[in-house]
């Protein structure tokens, strides 16, 4: 499609290198007014880098970026950028300010004069209630630092929606949202694009959501545009995956390698882990992959119990040889309970330490040694290979890797560590379609070696594909039921979790 006066932005021939690494090699990208535009590509393709250059957070080497107003007249770069809001993969909120203050902040930056608390609260309430009225009513004056990851995500999205921007760039906005919140967000986006001409760029690896919300897509592969503004209707899922260069490891069930089966003979009775809450008791045999579904309150409490992080004791976790209560994450790790956090930026990645320390952190804790061993370099390279992570050097910092690749580092931490229990919070967050499939394989392989896997995901389809059983929590955080593999269905999960949109 050609550049038209209805476009809000045109990017042409964008290039960017970090040292010797060429990240963008001539990207073309344009967004029309009033459309939801899916920006697609595998991990490391260059999507976030382009977004950073559009917003001015990173500089370009070459190419042009032109912004236009609703009449089709060109805007200056500064004017154009002032009409762009972005929700990054990693949240950018100020923890010591309240929800209302965080949402009102962009308006202050644009020179609205004195900070008017009541006006800010009104504005924040209006923005938040578009996504969740209850949350808006109870959270306006809470400090952002006290919010959960998914609450923070809603605040960040509300901030973008209320910023007066004409172009909103959403980089994996639904990764921390429940199905209901995602559906509400989509309703708002459809309304705003239709009624106000807002343009939305939507970056996601979740094909189902992309189909639900986007009219048109651009696909980037290895820093180049391989599909430029094509209608979603003209592309099949398989076609999109192929354009992304991921045909060999497609998520499509046909042709995909089968996942290792659930084996009941990989451990003894003493290896059983029992979890118990008021009126609910579950025995987890070694090799089980237990899926956890539902709004965050219930899964979060279970995960805190399993990882030694619970401040109040709600869940009892028992295993032969374990104390009555896992008192700390360190104790849990030493006893063989691993954890991959869903809050990659704040609780997962060690930002100031090189990739090698990030990957080997769990080994060092479980071995009780913080000293770097000679063999560690080779060990780290092997782990990165297993997850197909391409890093220039294991001594680089993790922020030189794309978001999805950083997620793989967190998983690599527990690969090959002999754990009895591995708790995963959204382990495929931000991970591309091809790599997701590889992660499913790895998870099943870990289970096949006797590890109990507990896996919270907001993507019901992946739970149903990989897990042996799924425990569902309702919106109040109560355990609503348990599904065994032979009776799995999305409808049942939706009804148990109370998250039918
Ligand atoms: N500061 C940096 N220094 C060196 N390389 C970098 C830096 N930032 C990004 N890169 C590299 O640029 C490439 C593109 O990264 P980018 O984050 O744009 O990918 P992406 O398409 O957004 O991927 P994802 O889907 O995983 O978020 C990656 O190979 C990454 O390692």
TrEMBL record:
Domain ABC transporter: 9-247, 261-500
Keywords of this entry: ATP-binding, Membrane, Nucleotide-binding, Plasmid, Repeat, Sugar transport, Transport
A Pfam family matched in the record: ABC_tran
InterPro entries tied to this protein: AAA+_ATPase, ABC_carbohydrate_import_ATPase, ABC_transporter-like_ATP-bd, P-loop_NTPase
Top-level division of the source organism's lineage: Bacteria
Keyword Transport applies: yes
MF (Gene Ontology): ATP binding; ATP hydrolysis activity
PANTHER family with a match to the protein in the record: CARBOHYDRATE TRANSPORT ATP-BINDING PROTEIN MG119-RELATED (PTHR43790), GALACTOFURANOSE TRANSPORTER ATP-BINDING PROTEIN YTFR (PTHR43790:SF9)
Protein name: Sugar ABC transporter ATP-binding protein
Organism: Rhizobium acidisoli
């Amino acid at each position: 499609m050609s550049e038209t006066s209805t476009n809000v932005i045109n990017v042409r021939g964008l290039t960017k290198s970090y040292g010797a690494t060429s990240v963008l090699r001539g990207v073309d990208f344009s967004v029309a007014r009033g459309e939801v535009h899916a920006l697609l590509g595998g991990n490391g393709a260059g999507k976030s880098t382009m977004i950073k250059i559009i917003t001015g957070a990173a500089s370009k080497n070459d190419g042009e970026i032109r912004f236009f107003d609703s009449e089709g007249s060109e805007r200056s770069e500064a004017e154009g950028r002032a009409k762009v809001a972005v929700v990054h993969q990693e949240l950018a909120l100020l923890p010591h300010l309240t929800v209302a203050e965080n949402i009102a902040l962009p308006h202050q930056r644009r020179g609205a004069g004195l900070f008017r608390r009541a006006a800010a609260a009104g504005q924040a309430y209006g923005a938040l209630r578009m996504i969740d009225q209850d949350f808006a009513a109870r959270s306006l004056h809470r400090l952002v630092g006290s919010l959960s990851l998914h609450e923070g995500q809603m605040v960040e999205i509300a901030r973008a929606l209320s910023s007066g921007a004409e172009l909103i760039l959403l980089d994996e906005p639904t990764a921390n949202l429940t199905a209901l919140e995602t559906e509400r967000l989509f309703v708002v986006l459809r309304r705003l694009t239709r009624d106000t001409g807002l343009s939305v760029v939507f970056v996601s690896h979740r094909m189902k959501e992309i189909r639900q919300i986007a009219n048109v897509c651009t696909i980037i592969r290895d820093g180049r545009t391989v599909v430029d503004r094509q209608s979603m209707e003209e592309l099949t899922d398989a076609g999109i995956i192929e354009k992304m260069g991921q045909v060999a490891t497609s998520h499509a069930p046909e042709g995909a390698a089968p996942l290792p089966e659930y084996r009941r003979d990989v451990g003894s009775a003493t290896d059983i882990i029992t979890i118990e809450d008021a009126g609910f008791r579950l025995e987890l045999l070694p090799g089980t992959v237990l899926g956890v579904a539902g709004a965050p309150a219930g899964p979060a409490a279970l995960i805190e119990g399993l990882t030694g992080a619970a401040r109040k004791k709600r869940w009892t976790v028992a295993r032969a040889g374990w104390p009555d209560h896992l008192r700390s994450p360190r104790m849990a790790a030493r006893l063989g309970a691993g954890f991959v956090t869903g809050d990659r930026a704040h609780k997962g990645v060690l930002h100031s330490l090189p990739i090698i320390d990030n990957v080997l952190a769990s080994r060092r804790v479980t071995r009780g040694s913080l000293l770097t061993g000679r063999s560690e370099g080779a060990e780290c390279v092997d782990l990165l290979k297993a997850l197909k992570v391409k890093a220039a050097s294991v001594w680089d910092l993790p922020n030189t890797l794309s978001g999805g690749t950083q997620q793989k580092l967190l998983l690599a931490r527990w690969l090959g560590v002999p754990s009895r229990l591995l708790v995963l919070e959204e382990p495929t967050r931000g991970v591309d379609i091809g790599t997701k499939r590889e992660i499913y394989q790895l998870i099943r392989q870990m289970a096949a070696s006797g590890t109990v896997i507990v896996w919270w995901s907001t993507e019901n389809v992946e739970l149903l594909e990989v897990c042996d059983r799924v425990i569902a929590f309702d919106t109040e955080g109560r355990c609503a039921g348990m599904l065994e593999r032979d009776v799995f269905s999305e409808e049942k999960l939706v009804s148990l979790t109370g998250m039918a949109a």
